[in-house]
Design a protein that fits this description.
Length: about 900
């Protein structure tokens, strides 16, 4: 039933209400009903004929027609009544309702306007006029009319629904909140009101309050599907995937009429890496709603992300068959063809789309971009010309066509298009590039030539030469963000940190609103001990994104050096705590504020608060973090507890925090690895081995977890009777597996690692050859994986575990590591291993290079604990105590720090009393 039917005033004017008129009477149901219908009809006709000039008789007949759904006849009777008595409001109301029923919005508008001419302060006429404007998409007029209706009749609840939604659409969140609060006062028992309030809170970036509003709606109406979907979406957007999954899985099981639930559930599964479950959910959606194209479209996107392009194409085509006028489906399928580099299919699709949507400039623009991408500039110009015909006021289209003219060398045409773009929007940045773009056209061609050479040098592993080519590129085109980012990565891989900082400086100048860039810049400054600079950058991060958890924690850690060098007194620290406590009382993100305050005690209080007081206060704050935490807050909460217990020397409690992390985020292999390392450090080898077998099955492609499983097998077997036979039996089992599965590269990797960990020292010379063959076979079968290389590295480091490393063995190990870095430059473990070997070489030059490699590993691995520990020991030996302290604390900040915490505790005590 429509809004008009619910609140139309005719119900109070005449005996038959409009709401009743919507119920069609089936006069063929029985002879009695048909007889009653005919008798009433004849009686009304008799009255009309008896006194044709009485408008009341015509109105009564019109209402009879409306009751039985004879709307055209009702319209005729109402026109007669209107002609006989033009000032009667009831007639105009009924005409307005009929016009709304027929979606004849212009005539409905005139009908309600006529009522207001007769009675200007009629609130219901204002309300229905506002609804009519809304249907005509004239939202400003709709808002004004509805607002006037509420001024005339403050209890007109339905008007506040529309006003709140219109204000929310205009992003006027304060007015939207006012309207919905008024509605709540008028209709406090309606759960839909709390859903609308939840939408406003969500738009205001107050997810905690949105959650409470949706939970209130569900409490009032436990079966409220809309509220459950909205709550699940808030959890999903906020990173609380587990909570979202619980709602959606329950909803899909109970409620089979909500396709949105299947779609959201599929998205949630994707976020936690459960792709098969996501696909199965979409197949369920297709089965439950066979006419819904979204199930096919979303499944197509999922197939596309998984590289199953033929299946993706098939699903997109099914979606288009179900909804042939959905333009976005054609765009998505076209994107698939572009990624597949299928120019014929892409061009054919967009040309067909242009025929289907001949007046849509976006489709012609996409066709132009496809032609341009596949090097058909003339056809691209023609397509953009069609787009401009459809949208002659789009400066963007003129700029795109102008750039094509530049490619074709048609500079006069390009200048004219740039001039048109500037005339439309003088502030358009692309329109200002006319002469500059033409002037630099040849410069770009030269830059691309250098770029290609730089890529070739990278593939060959010649980083210094690659950097030279990139410098030439950036000299010609200094403001290309993508090239600057690539150059930045090369500087980080090679340990050229001054150039990394300079490149970050250029990037944030070109993209001043990118929080990710500022955070990366701040993290690098912090890792390089440039605390004041990093503090300013973290402040910028937080200003751009107040909910940036990493940025806020980084801001606190930047103050730590002031306590280390004694420039911040304990009294000033307490003042800082007071300031953060004041922020806690007013913060809209209470959980984040509690986490900040806890980190203040962990990162700074550890240095000044007596005894274990800092830890006690931090734990109290962490315990107060509410249940509506996002996944990011949940992660940082357990990481803070882990760091706290390592600093306090409570290894078992640190393990408990890691266990909670691993249970909360079961699909993250880093937490699984960290838990095993911590258990090994705590001498819980048997338990660690049982878990390693579980993790090995859960993450079958993770070489690190597979090798840890073998290492733990060796440790557990060594504690039993006759370990030698157990080791040999395991090696035989691994050999039998690769014999039966000669194409399984992971089998060869396992065999190599088994030989490394399970071979007795006096048998290592022979086993080393077999391990090398196994790793090289794995590398041959899967050249794109870093794990065979990592196995070769572990094998070489196993060689170097002896007291003295021969020059030949050392050089061979370094060569393996350098080759691994060429192929996998972003892997921190490879840089770390190289740094360790170079530090032990005895060569001063190699030692300095080793330090750079360790710093690189620490930066790439985000406080990679093994590298941080070696750096701390290095600086400690060099009596650079500030740097040593920084890296000792970085070890405890890492999830892998549990392996070193006892030694860190001992060494920190020797640094600062």
């Amino acid at each position: 039933m429509s809004t008009v039917e619910r609140v139309h005033p005719a119900a109070s004017i005449v005996p038959l209400s409009i709401s009743e008129s919507a119920e069609e009477v089936d006069v063929t149901a029985s002879p009695t009903a048909k007889s009653a219908f005919l008798n009433e009809y004849k009686a009304l006709l008799k009255r009309v004929k008896g006194d044709a000039h009485d408008p009341g008789h015509h109105l009564e007949l019109a209402r009879f027609y409306i009751k039985h759904q004879y709307l055209r006849k009702a319209h005729s009777s109402l026109q007669v009544a209107k002609a006989l008595q033009p000032r009667r409001l009831e007639t105009h109301y009924l005409l307005g309702w009929l016009y709304q029923k027929e979606a004849n919005w212009e005539q409905a508008r005139l009908a309600y306007r006529q009522i207001l001419r007769l009675k200007p302060n009629e609130p219901l006429a204002r309300f229905h006029l506002g609804e009519t404007f809304l249907a005509m998409n004239q939202k400003e007029q709709a808002y004004e009319s509805l607002l006037k209706a509420t001024e005339l009749e403050p209890n007109l609840a339905q008007a506040y629904w529309h006003l709140g939604r219109l204000a929310l659409e205009r992003r006027d969140h304060n007015r939207a909140m006012t309207h919905f609060q008024t509605l709540k006062n008028l209709d406090p028992a309606n759960p839909d009101v709390y859903c609308e309030l939840g939408a406003v809170f969500k738009a205001q970036s107050q997810p905690d309050r949105a959650v409470m509003a949706y939970q209130k709606a569900i409490e009032m109406s436990p079966g409220h599907v809309g509220a459950q979907l909205a709550l699940a979406r808030v959890y999903l957007d906020g990173g609380a995937i587990t909570k979202s999954l619980a709602i959606l899985e329950s909803l899909v099981t109970r409620e089979a009429t909500a396709p949105e639930a299947y779609l959201l559930l599929s998205q949630a599964y994707q976020k936690v890496g459960k792709v098969p479950q996501a696909q199965a959910t979409l197949l369920q959606l297709q089965k439950a709603f066979p006419g819904n194209p979204r199930g096919h479209a979303e499944l197509a996107r999922l197939y596309f992300l998984g590289g199953e392009h033929e299946l993706a194409e098939e699903e997109f085509l099914k979606a288009i068959d179900l909804s042939p006028d959905d333009k976005e489906l054609y765009v998505a399928l076209g994107t698939l063809y572009l990624n597949l580099k299928a120019p014929s299919k892409a061009i054919h699709l967009y040309r067909d789309s242009c025929a289907r949507f001949p007046d849509d400039p976006q489709i012609y623009s996409l066709l132009g971009e496809v032609y341009d991408r596949f090097d058909h500039p003339d056809e691209s110009v023609e397509a953009f010309s069609h787009a401009i015909t459809g949208d002659p006021e789009s400066e963007t289209l003129y700029c795109k066509r102008a750039k094509l003219y530049v490619k074709l060398g048609k500079y006069n045409e390009a200048l004219r298009d740039f001039e048109r773009a500037r005339a439309i929007d003088p502030a358009c940045p692309e329109a200002k590039l006319d002469t500059e773009l033409i002037r630099t056209h040849k410069k770009y061609q030269e830059a691309f030539s250098f770029y290609s050479k730089g890529m070739d040098a990278l593939k060959a592993g010649n980083y210094q030469q690659a950097m030279g080519f990139y410098r030439q590129v950036l000299k010609l085109v200094p403001n290309n963000v993508d090239w600057l980012k690539e150059f930045l990565q090369i500087t980080l891989y090679t340990g050229q940190f001054p150039e990394s900082l300079a490149t970050y400086e250029k990037l944030v100048a070109l993209a001043p609103t990118s929080g990710d860039l500022y955070r990366g810049y701040a993290d690098l400054q912090y890792q390089l001990l440039q605390y004041e600079q990093s503090r300013g950058l973290y402040e910028r991060c937080v200003a751009l994104a107040p909910g940036d958890v990493e940025g806020r924690i980084g801001l606190i850690r930047c103050l730590r050096h002031k306590l280390i060098d004694r420039s911040l007194s304990p009294g000033k620290f307490e003042a800082l705590v007071t300031a953060y406590e004041g922020h806690l009382t007013s913060s809209r993100h209470r959980n984040l504020a509690l986490l900040e305050l806890a980190h203040l005690h962990v990162s700074l209080g550890y240095l000044v608060e007596p005894g274990g007081q800092w830890a006690t206060r931090a734990i109290e704050l962490i315990d107060k973090i509410g249940p509506q935490e996002s996944d990011e807050i949940a992660r940082r909460k357990q990481l803070a507890l882990h760091e706290l217990h390592l600093l306090a020397g409570n290894g078992r409690d640190a393990i408990a925090a890691l266990e909670r992390l691993q249970r909360t985020f079961p699909h993250n292999p880093v937490f699984a690895h960290a838990l095993l390392e911590n258990l090994m450090e705590d001498r819980q080898d048997v338990r660690a081995f049982r878990l390693s077998e579980e993790f090995r099955n859960k993450f079958p492609d993770n070489g690190l977890l597979r090798s840890l499983s073998l290492k733990l097998f060796a440790l557990v077997a060594s504690s039993k009777d006759n370990p030698k036979s157990l080791h040999r039996a395991k090696i035989r089992a691994l050999q039998q597996y690769v014999a039966a599965n000669p194409r399984d590269w992971m089998g060869f990797f396992d065999l190599g690692m088994g030989l490394v960990y399970l071979t007795r020292p006096n048998e290592w010379f022979e086993s080393r050859k077999k391990a090398s063959i196994a790793f090289n076979k794995a590398k041959q079968l899967e050249p794109g994986s870093p794990w065979p290389w990592w196995g070769l590295v572990k094998m070489s480091l196993h060689d170097s575990s002896k007291e003295k490393l021969g020059v030949a063995e050392r050089d061979r190990t370094i060569a393996i590591l350098r080759n691994a870095i060429i192929l996998f430059p972003s892997e921190p473990g490879v840089h770390y291993c190289l740094g360790r070997v170079l530090h032990r070489s005895g060569d001063p030059e190699k030692y300095e290079e080793g330090t750079r490699s360790l710093i690189t590993a620490s930066i790439l691995g985000d406080r990679f604990a093994p590298a941080s520990f070696d750096l701390a020991v290095h600086y400690h030996s060099a009596q650079d105590y500030t740097r040593a302290y920084h890296h000792y604390l970085a070890v405890c900040e890492s999830v892998l720090g549990g392996r070193y915490y006892r030694e860190v505790q001992r060494r920190i005590r020797s640094l600062i009393p």
